[in-house]
Specification:
Keywords: Endoplasmic reticulum, Glycosyltransferase, Membrane, Transferase, Transmembrane, Transmembrane helix
Strand content: under 5%
Largest sheet: none
GO molecular function: dolichyl pyrophosphate Glc1Man9GlcNAc2 alpha-1,3-glucosyltransferase activity
Number of helices: 21
Pfam families: Alg6_Alg8 (PF03155)
Organism: Malurus cyaneus samueli
InterPro entries: Glyco_trans_ALG6/ALG8
Length: 523
Amino acid sequence: ASLRTGWDGGGGWCRAAANPRGVGYSTDFEVHRNWLAITHNLPLSQWYYEATSEWTLDYPPFFAWFEYALSHIAKYFDPQMLVVENLNYASHATILFQRLSVIFADTLFIYAVHECCRCVNGKRAAKDILEKPTFILAVLLLWNFGLLIVDHIHFQYNGFLFGLMLLSVARLCQKRYLEGALLFAVLLHFKHIYIYVAPAYGIYLLRSYCFTANNADGSLKWRSFSFLHVTLLGLIVCLVSALSLGPFLVLGQLPQVISRLFPFKRGLCHAYWAPNFWALYNALDKALTILGLKCNFLDGTKIPKASMTGGLVQEFQHTVLPSVTPLATLICTFIAILPSVFCLWFKPQGPRGFLQCLVLCALSSFVFGWHVHEKAILLAILPLSLLSIQRAKDAGIYLILATTGHFSLFPLLFTASELPIKILLMLLFTVYSFSSLKSLFRREKPLLNWLETIYLIQLVPLEIFCEIIFPLTPWKWHFPFVPLLLTSVYCALGITYAWLKLYLSVLTERISVRQKTKCPQFL
């Protein structure tokens, strides 16, 4: 049981540390083991109803079938892992299989990176292969720190899923529009979080594929609309959706599937506050609560003990500021995405404009979304890597977002033995990112200004305080949430700043008529 203060200084913030085995695997490891067992043993009609474990199946059907396919290989490693009742089962053979399955699935990610690199033009050709944009891009993607720790230390299949996304991006850049649309439609039915970037795909395909020509001034030629192209895109979406959701529609279980995919009762924030606008909002609410209690403006007996600092995955009420509803976050996200979509339509820049809109959609959804997971920041960092090798301005934004976003993932690895690993891997990737991009744009002005540099440097003392100093103080018994709160709030400032800076860059960018009429190559 956690030690509770007047507003729950408790261990809900430390829920990630509630691993019954102490070390060796994460919560997500058990999540996917349970899904293997569910899909292997139970009929389709029970997949989205089974609730023996608290980690119920809450991914779309294609991912469930992916787990089903893996389960038929898993049974040769250790059939006991496929028993639904074997909660928290983690034999050596099970761990080996789970790790190998992630590595094998990453082959799609490697291929997708290769295809993205093929889209890079030779404007910045260098004699040294280490300074070539294609090499830098390959390293930034393949050795991405966040993806590495989330998939191969923490445990998930994000590499496989991002492989589908990057491959769809590459196909759109290569003007293979139907392939790109098919890949993205399939991706949505593997993991629905990618719906965040669906507006970018929809508008880009409509502008570039459904309308086939522009006027001389760069404006859209409405008469070029192709009913055939719209029909083909519609068929792809309908066929993929029918293949995925059709069986559950026939069984009359579609509402149950939807309720699992969109569990709004889980609350505004995840167990660990994602570093977004709502982290700042929650922190402000807590600061006002403390101030109100000290000034006797608030009645301490009326403040709920299970508050946001507990990090519980449930609905809650703010104390001072207005409580946030799912509808409010949806409206905020929609408003935040809208300008980027307008730019994609009225200021078309081909694939580069599409990527800018994709990143802004991902960031807007991360900043204002409901129950956002901290790992969702990778949805913006990875595609921004593709822009970072093109312009110094984008490279600077990438360095801020990647450094801050990756640092915000540190709490996923919380044991003492993992501390040197995450610090070393973070340093290696960050040093390479800064040095390679600085070398690529050495003839231009510095990538970061002095204020941005100071902000990023302050991550070092923040980590020292959270990992070394704070555990030695008596505060850790009364306020165990403080390190996570500081990490979340400080990183939220950097991520929000990067989002605003990228938006300002896109909105103020001037597009010539030539750029509007001639669809440029990717990079």
